[in-house]
């Protein structure tokens, strides 16, 4: 079957397929009956474990104390019994390598018993520690092959769960992945370490408000955007299959200019898919909450209720896995890439971030009493200070080849890291900084003595162009890419907040705070200090505008446009000092992360450029030449009967074919030269400055041809078809 008929038969298969049939009875099995069904939760443990064992495990979970082996043995036994009663045959240590994906190694519970039967075993040590053959996971030089061992270690704070498959189930144990020397090889370990650092510093501040004690945890709620397209199209596009994005394609005639997709009615097939995704998430105890269409046609969003940052991070990975798995069941592919279709809005992952405890409440909630307000102001100022001091770091943790296509593309925040506070909060900060007291429209108020003017929740018309926006009771980090793990952003935010709170606590510890008035004045002086130094990072205007780029540069704010510019920040002294001071990542660990991420960037673009060459040569060029032939023979036939027809189309096609060939061979030459002993940093720059622009030149020819070549000869499903045919 030639390329074009694959495309046309894809369309006819989709349009003749009936909408999905329902596969389960939602009346007889309501949400409440499936919620957390596949989670080995605290409740489940309480029922299955002897009281003393349960108590000791709970202590480990809340305090982080090491787990002793006899407790682990008892927990493993209970877990095994629970898992087998839920159909499990295997257990898997699940870990999160630096690729940002989820990895797992499965082992059977069952061993031969020596008498021709089998016996199920699962020891405490098998629960606590595994040894995957991790040598194929990227480690950025931490593990030489002679010391290639990596260990997975059970993360007691994240519950074990069961993954279902039509042919069996697997017990999944969330783990941290470390080298034999104890260095982190994964995304999870630093999340846990950074949460500890944050708690330590937050406690020092909260002492002044009498709200210290219970562990302060950061919380995260990640809004996941994604595209759904029919599998028939997906498999007809080698670029989607191998890169997750289209490397060619001109924008659809009808784009998103009518704003009719956002919050519009969700197509039936997509809704069926969403129901199933949500039910699968519920079974895993993931509190998905919101679903809606997004701005672009074919684009949707799912958001859970926020959870502790480490649990939210694991759950976010599971949400992505579930979206992909369920889409397949419905004959669709879920595209998590940040920019699957050029010219159409891309996908992000807004990570909502806050912190708190049962006693201190939500620390980014302005609160209702004078004391709560003062506490809020300290945490808010600390956040401003953190973002100001580490704007480059925040940029680097969202850097990837795919997110580069989205950031700053007039749909996502620019690469300049600024904070949006909103008018009310901005006014309060200004007032404190200028007079030491807050003079709002009606009142003059002092921190800690009177109440702040109410700070309304900005839900409707709030600023959508800011990379870090205060949204009433949390900050929303909008620069995160849709395909990324949220671990990196969480590690960065926890750690920079820990540093800022360290500074706040040191300030409060150095001044008089013996009375409420004195404490109020101390808070004021801290806020004043931060505002004076850091208010440059606050920007409440339109982050998409050209004026902002100019102004930001006048303010001296960094603007690291691409991954090639941003990744090196991980090796900056300020970054190493920060992470080492709070024992989150060592210099060696940072170095290894830099290597892995830079190599990922290079490898991603390498695969893409391979495909640009291949598709251009084997799909586009043949189609264009066939069309050229058709035009030529038609012109010749006309000429034979004395008609001199217009040559402009064949001239254009011929010109484009020539340019296409030229650009493709230039790209090939660049790629050959690419491997000449460049160091990693120079290689990244070569990719950014040479390879990517040349890929765009090839693309421009192809997209121009798409608008000329006869539709029945065009081999690749078009944007129009992929985005609108459901
Ligand atoms: P919007 O699209 O208006 O940003 P959504 O309802 O899509 O709002 O998502 C809001 C997200 O913010 C949810 O995931 C929600 O759980 C999360 N969130 C709310 N409060 C907090 C908080 N205190 N800490 C972290 N995340 C929060
Ligand atoms: Mg949203």
What does this structure look like?
49% of the residues are buried. Strand 7 and strand 8 (168-179) form a beta hairpin. By secondary structure, this protein is an alpha+beta fold. Helix content is 48%, strand content 14%. The radius of gyration is 28 Å and the shape is globular. It has 23 helices and 20 strands. The longest helix is centred in the C-terminal third of the chain and has 54 residues, at 587-640. Helix 12 runs parallel beside helix 16 (516-534). Strands 9, 10, 11, 12, 13, 14, 15, 16, 19 and 20 form a 10-stranded mixed sheet that branches. Strands 1, 2, 5, 6, 7 and 8 form a 6-stranded mixed sheet that branches. The protein has a two-stranded antiparallel ribbon with strand order 3-4. The site of adenosine-5'-diphosphate has 16 residues, from strand 9, strand 11 and strand 14. The site of magnesium ion has 3 residues, from loops.
């Amino acid at each position: 079957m030639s390329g074009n008929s694959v495309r046309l038969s894809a369309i006819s298969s989709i349009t003749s397929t009936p909408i999905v049939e329902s596969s389960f009875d939602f009346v007889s099995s309501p949400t409440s009956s499936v919620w957390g069904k596949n989670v080995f939760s605290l409740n489940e443990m309480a029922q299955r474990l002897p009281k003393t064992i349960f108590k000791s495990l709970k202590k480990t979970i809340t305090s982080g104390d090491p787990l002793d082996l006899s407790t682990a043995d008892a927990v493993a036994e209970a877990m095994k019994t629970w898992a087998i009663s839920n159909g499990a045959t295997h257990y898997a240590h699940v870990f999160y390598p630096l690729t940002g994906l989820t990895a797992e190694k499965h082992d059977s519970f069952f061993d031969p018993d020596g008498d021709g039967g089998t016996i199920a075993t699962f020891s405490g040590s098998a629960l606590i520690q595994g040894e995957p053959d991790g040598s194929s996971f990227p480690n950025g030089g931490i593990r030489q092959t002679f010391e290639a061992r990596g260990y997975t270690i059970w993360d007691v704070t994240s519950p074990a769960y069961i993954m279902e498959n039509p042919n069996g189930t697997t017990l999944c144990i969330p783990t941290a992945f470390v080298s034999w020397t104890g260095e982190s090889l994964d995304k999870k370990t630093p999340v846990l370490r950074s949460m500890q650092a944050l708690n330590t510093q937050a406690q020092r501040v909260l002492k002044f408000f009498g709200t210290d004690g219970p562990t302060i945890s950061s919380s995260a709620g990640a809004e996941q955007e994604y595209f759904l397209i029919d599998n028939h199209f997906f498999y007809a596009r080698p670029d989607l299959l191998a890169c997750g994005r289209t490397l060619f394609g001109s924008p659809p005639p009808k784009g998103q200019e009518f704003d009719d997709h956002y919050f519009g009615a969700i197509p039936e097939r997509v809704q069926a898919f969403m129901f199933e995704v949500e039910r699968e998430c519920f079974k895993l105890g993931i509190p998905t909450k919101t679903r809606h269409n997004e701005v672009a046609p074919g684009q949707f969003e799912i958001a859970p209720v926020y959870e502790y940052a480490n649990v939210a991070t694991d759950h976010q990975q599971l949400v992505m896995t579930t979206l992909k798995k369920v889409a397949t069941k419905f004959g669709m592919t879920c595209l998590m890439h940040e920019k699957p279709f050029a010219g159409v809005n891309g996908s992000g992952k807004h990570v909502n971030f806050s912190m708190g405890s049962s006693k201190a409440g939500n620390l980014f909630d302005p609160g209702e009493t004078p004391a709560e307000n003062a506490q809020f102001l300290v945490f808010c100022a600390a956040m401003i200070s953190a973002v100001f001091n580490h704007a480059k770091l925040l940029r680097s943790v969202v850097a990837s080849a795919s997110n580069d296509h989205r950031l700053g593309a007039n749909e996502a925040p620019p690469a300049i890291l600024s904070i949006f506070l909103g008018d009310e909060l901005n006014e309060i900060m200004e007032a404190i900084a200028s007079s030491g007291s807050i003079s709002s429209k009606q009142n003059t108020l002092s921190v800690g003595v009177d109440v702040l003017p109410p700070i309304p929740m900005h839900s409707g018309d709030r600023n959508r162009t800011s990379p870090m926006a205060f949204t009433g009771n949390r900050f929303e980090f909008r620069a995160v890419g849709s395909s990324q793990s949220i671990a990196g952003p969480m590690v960065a935010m926890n750690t920079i907040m820990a540093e800022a709170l360290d500074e706040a606590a040191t300030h409060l510890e150095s001044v008089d705070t013996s009375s409420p008035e004195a404490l109020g004045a101390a808070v004021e002086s801290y806020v004043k200090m931060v505002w004076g130094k850091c208010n440059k990072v606050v920007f409440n205007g339109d982050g998409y505008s050209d004026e902002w780029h100019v102004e930001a540069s006048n303010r001296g704010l960094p603007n690291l446009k691409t991954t090639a510019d941003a990744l090196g920040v991980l090796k900056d002294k300020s970054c190493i000092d920060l992470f080492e001071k709070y024992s989150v990542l060592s210099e060696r660990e940072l170095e290894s992360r830099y290597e892995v991420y830079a190599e990922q960037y290079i490898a991603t673009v390498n695969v893409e450029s391979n495909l640009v060459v291949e598709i251009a040569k084997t799909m586009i060029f043949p189609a264009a030449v066939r069309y050229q032939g058709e035009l030529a023979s038609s012109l010749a036939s006309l000429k034979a009967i004395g008609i001199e027809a217009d040559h402009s189309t064949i001239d254009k096609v011929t010109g484009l074919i020539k340019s296409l060939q030229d650009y493709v061979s230039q790209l090939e030459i660049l790629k050959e030269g690419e491997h000449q002993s460049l160091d990693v940093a120079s290689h990244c720059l070569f990719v950014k400055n040479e390879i990517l622009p040349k890929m765009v030149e090839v693309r421009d020819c192809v997209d121009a041809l798409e608008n000329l070549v006869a539709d029945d000869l065009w081999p690749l499903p078009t944007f129009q078809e992929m985005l609108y045919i459901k």
